């Protein structure tokens, strides 16, 4: 028996009957030999962790555009907090932590520079539409490794694709990540908003604070415990009605006070125009795209719009700034 097989046997003996076992995976699009040490979901987690798109998350906006301070969240720190919340819930419910972690680490790979402002901009510019969850799947299926993709299992790709509020994953592990994403961003965005003096703890409605708690730590504790208690020994991931409603109310409050706040979002108009300029530039000068992106159009017959979105959405904030400056700002005359 290999190490992998012994680990798969341990899953059968210790995990919940509702957990997704590694041996029961629907598999990969391209068949490949099994690792003798790692079960399939652990391999997926490792592939995501080592891919270029994951590393770029460290320089992509979460909520506040180019904040001046070391402690504001980026898209990567958000991803790590989602993973930690999800693993805590998954371990308590005896679910497959490796599947949970793979989905969590990969769920936002397709996010654009400048956060959701960038996503809205590309969605408006591209006639085929642009959604970061679908782009995350496109990255792991095609764009990574120079067009080879990461060849992840069906369950991981399903969890990545369906992590948004309006969608629902097919595994309990994916459902855990879906809720953990909301828990993470609502709470850490409150923390960042307070740091930015856009919001104060006392401004959060008393009805919400009475249910969830009066600090970020207490709210996280309440939400995570509620999911664990309500979902224990059930084939679903659920919350109690009162806590679920309080979280929905808190999310709505955050949209009103932070996510749509004119002060906090003042620079997003400029970011929108920057991405519009880059999109139009590459549509008019397609040959300026890196060769590996042009091949998706020339060989795979993806539309030019889709390929331009692939390139722009993969940029970090700083890379997009620098390209804009290079293409559209005049340079000083120099004689050498």
Folded structure, characterized:
With 336 residues, the protein is mainly alpha-helical. It has a domain at 39-259: Hypothetical protein af1432 (Orthogonal Bundle). Helices cover 61% and strands 0% of the residues. The protein contains 16 helices and no strands. It has helices at 3-14, 40-50, 52-56, 75-92, 97-106, 115-125, 132-147, 154-161, 172-195, 206-212, 216-231, 241-259, 268-284, 291-298, 304-313, 317-328. Helix 2 (40-50) runs parallel beside helix 5 and helix 10 crosses helix 12. The protein is flat. It starts with a helix and ends in an 8-residue tail after the last helix. The mean pLDDT is 95.
List keywords for this structure.
336 residues, mainly alpha, Hypothetical protein af1432, flat
Summarize the structure.
The protein has a domain at about 40-260: Hypothetical protein af1432 (Orthogonal Bundle).
The secondary-structure element order is HHHHHHHHHHHHHHHH
Please, what is the CATH homologous superfamily of the domain at 39-259? Hypothetical protein af1432
Computed CA radius of gyration, to the nearest angstrom: 21 Å
Q: End-to-end distance, in Å? A: 69 Å
Note the overall shape. Answer: flat
**CATH architectural group of the domain at 39-259:** Orthogonal Bundle
Number of helices: 16
| Percent helix | 55-70%
Low-confidence sequence ranges = none
CATH top level of the domain at 39-259?
A: Mainly Alpha
Structural class, from helix and strand content?
Answer: mainly alpha
Q: What name does CATH use for the topology of the domain at 39-259?
A: Hypothetical protein af1432
Beta-strand share of residues: under 5%
| Largest β-sheet summary | none
* Mean pLDDT value: 95
Number of strands: 0
